[in-house]
Design a protein that fits this description.
InterPro entries: DUF2225. The protein has seven helices and six strands; from the N terminus they run ββββββααααααα. By secondary structure, it is of the alpha+beta class. It has two domains: 1-151, no CATH class; 160-225. A hairpin with a 6-residue loop joins strand 5 and strand 6.
Length: 225
């Protein structure tokens, strides 16, 4: 890893007001090698995904960077009661191993559940945990793919996706791909078909191409079984 690929970012915890340092990846140093069908990137450089979660070393509050400061007064008490009261101070401020990154995401997932985060946000955390397990622990990867899948389906049917990066085209494709990865070809074909027949698919040529490719792959596998 390049010495200057990571830099220190100073953060103030919204729960306990502790100021701490966390690592961030310089965008200019990110080198993507290839991408899996469920959007997991493989990097020639250090993996920036490992640093997307901020963890307060003093009180244990953890969240994705995008949500870290989005916390209301009554939610602070929930974290203090359920996390901080049991927390033993530890640091995640240095270069993170895969296992340390998983620990950070697990903690963010737990905090997110306590705070009733949107299903879409929880699904994204679960999916990233699955990515970190990929190639390391097949059983745990599948468990978190299943978690992400259930959360994404709930988000698809119950949440407003218009102001998110995961509109109904992206999430519909992703649900199909996660079903395919879990070996449920029937549901995969159903979701890919639903996505490709959505009129909005024409606004996203990249996802349309990926959906058609994975749809054909799932149908071939389904017919071959």
């Amino acid at each position: 890893m390049e010495v200057d690929a990571l830099y220190d970012k100073k953060v103030k915890c919204p729960i306990c007001s502790k100021e701490f340092i966390t690592k961030k990846m310089r965008t200019s140093r990110i080198r993507i090698d290839r991408v899996d069908g469920d959007f997991m990137n493989y990097y020639k450089s250090e993996n920036p995904t490992k640093y997307h979660v901020f963890v307060c070393p003093k009180c244990g509050y953890a969240a994705m960077e995008s949500n870290f400061n989005n916390i209301r007064p009554f939610e602070k008490e929930i974290i203090k009661e359920n996390v901080s009261s049991k927390w033993r101070e530890r640091e995640y401020s240095g270069v993170r191993t895969d296992e340390e990154a998983i620990q950070c995401y697990m903690l963010a997932f737990y905090c997110g559940q306590l705070l009733n985060l949107k299903k879409l946000d929880l699904g994204n955390i679960a999916l990233k945990i699955a990515w970190l397990y990929r190639g390391k622990n097949e059983e745990e990867e599948r468990r978190f793919i299943q978690n992400a899948l259930e959360l994404f389906e709930q988000a698809f049917y119950t949440e407003n996706l218009s102001d998110t990066s995961m509109d109904e085209i992206n999430i519909g494709y992703l649900i199909g791909e996660l079903y395919r990865r879990l070996g449920n070809k029937k549901e995969a074909v159903l979701w890919f078909g639903k996505t490709v027949s959505n009129p909005l698919i024409k606004t996203n040529p990249r996802i349309e191409k990926m959906t058609r490719e994975q749809w054909l792959l799932a149908k071939e596998n389904e017919n071959g079984e």
